[in-house]
Amino acid sequence: MAKKAKDARHQITLECTEAPGTSRYSTMKNRRNTQGRLELKKYNPVLRKHTVHKEIK
Predict the structure, then answer these.
(1) What is the mean pLDDT of residues 8-18?
(2) Sheet-wide strand order for 24-30
(3) Looking at the whole model, is its pTM more than 0.90?
(4) Which of 5, 16, 41, 45 could form a disulfide with 23 if both were Cys (CB 3.0 to 4.6 A apart)?
(5) CA dihedral (30, 31, 35, 37) positive or negative
(6) Residue 15 and residue 24 in contact, taking contact as beta carbons nearer than 8 Å
(7) What confidence category does residue 5 fall into, taking pLDDT thresholds of 50, 70 and 90?
(8) Cβ atoms < 10 Å from Cβ of 15
(9) How many helices (H) and strands (E) does the chain have?
(10) Rounded to 10 degrees, what is the CA torsion of 28, 38, 7, 24?
(11) Rounded-to-integer distance, Cα 14 and Cα 33, Å
(12) Following DSSP, what letter does each residue of 1-57 receive, concatenated?
């Protein structure tokens, strides 16, 4: 059987910074290209607006 190559893509979790614990998203990230923590603007359904979501461990 062939040896599986290491995959650079890992699943991460994004959490809302304005109201922690109210909204979480999961996505994939290539750790070779993006070493720092990811920040994206995503929709928070509890606050009913787009907020900044940061990567958590």
Answers:
(1) 95
(2) 24-30, 9-16, 49-56, 39-44
(3) no
(4) 16
(5) positive
(6) yes
(7) low
(8) 16
(9) 0, 4
(10) -30
(11) 18
(12) -PPPPPP-EEEEEEEESSSTTS-EEEEEEETTT--S--EEEEEETTTTEEEEEEEE-
CA dist list (Å): 25 to 1, 4, 12, 22: 36, 28, 8, 11
Structure tokens at 31: 């750790």
Q: How many residues does the chain have?
A: 57
- CA-to-CA dists, residue 23 to 15, 37, 47, angstroms: 6, 17, 9
Q: What are phi and psi of 46, to 5 degrees?
A: -70, -45
Return the structure tokens found at 18: 């304005």
Token digits of residue 37: 């923590």
